[in-house]
Design brief:
Order of helices and strands: HEEHEHHEEHEHEEE
Strand content: 15-25%
Strand order of the largest sheet: 7-1-2-6-3-5-4-8-9
Shape: globular
Structural class: alpha/beta
Distance between the termini: 31 Å
């Protein structure tokens, strides 16, 4: 990993550990994030996005082992879905656990993506906690595909904007979302 990425990870970790909100490149699009276990930081994310807390957030983890800490019982098919789909896939699971109420949906579900992206994977691994990931746009506004298209309102309210990939336009799109039921059935919510 190069020196620039190492430096950005160190700076971003400091902000996350202090309960700050970050603007960062995810494995899909630019995201607004924070420590998913810090309910006060999660509140700030909702405020920045101007989003109601009734709409739950996605969290990112860096491994299947980390995923197991936050789901009561993971259906067997989950591992196959995560490892066999090349594009980033977010899975909605039943029975979230060990997470603040403002991260999970009112029905106890949680949307989690195991990231394969080098920057996110390393950041989450070094941090040791899942990170919230929600698109870097105001609720109801179009998704920004490059850093320069992110609203100044968002850029000025976050505690730190990661200084990587600002000029990169890689045809990024939001992840595929799959609702996985406890019995192993699943439904594609967003392709």
């Amino acid at each position: 990993m190069n020196e620039e990425i190492e430096s950005e990870i160190a700076t971003t970790l400091k902000v996350l550990k202090e309960g700050g909100v970050i603007l960062y490149p995810t494995d899909t699009i630019w995201g607004i994030g924070c420590d998913a276990l810090n309910s006060k930081a999660v509140e700030k994310v909702y405020k920045i996005k101007q989003r109601t807390e009734s709409k739950s957030l996605i969290i990112l983890v860096n491994s299947f082992e980390m995923l197991q800490k936050y789901i009561d019982k993971i259906p067997d098919i989950a591992g196959d879905l995560i490892s066999n789909i090349d594009n980033p896939v977010t899975v909605i699971y039943d029975n979230a656990r060990n997470l603040p109420k403002n991260v999970t949906a009112s029905d106890g579900t949680i949307a989690i993506r195991v990231v394969k992206d080098e920057f996110c994977n390393r950041l989450i691994g070094d941090f040791g906690n899942p990170i919230v990931s929600t698109s870097a746009n105001l609720s109801g506004e179009p998704t920004a595909m490059v850093f320069s298209k992110i609203s100044d309102s968002i850029k000025t309210q976050v505690d730190y904007a990661v200084q990587l990939y600002h000029d990169l336009f890689n045809q990024a799109k939001p992840s595929t979302i799959i609702r996985l039921f406890a019995n192993g059935d699943f439904k594609i919510i967003r392709d």
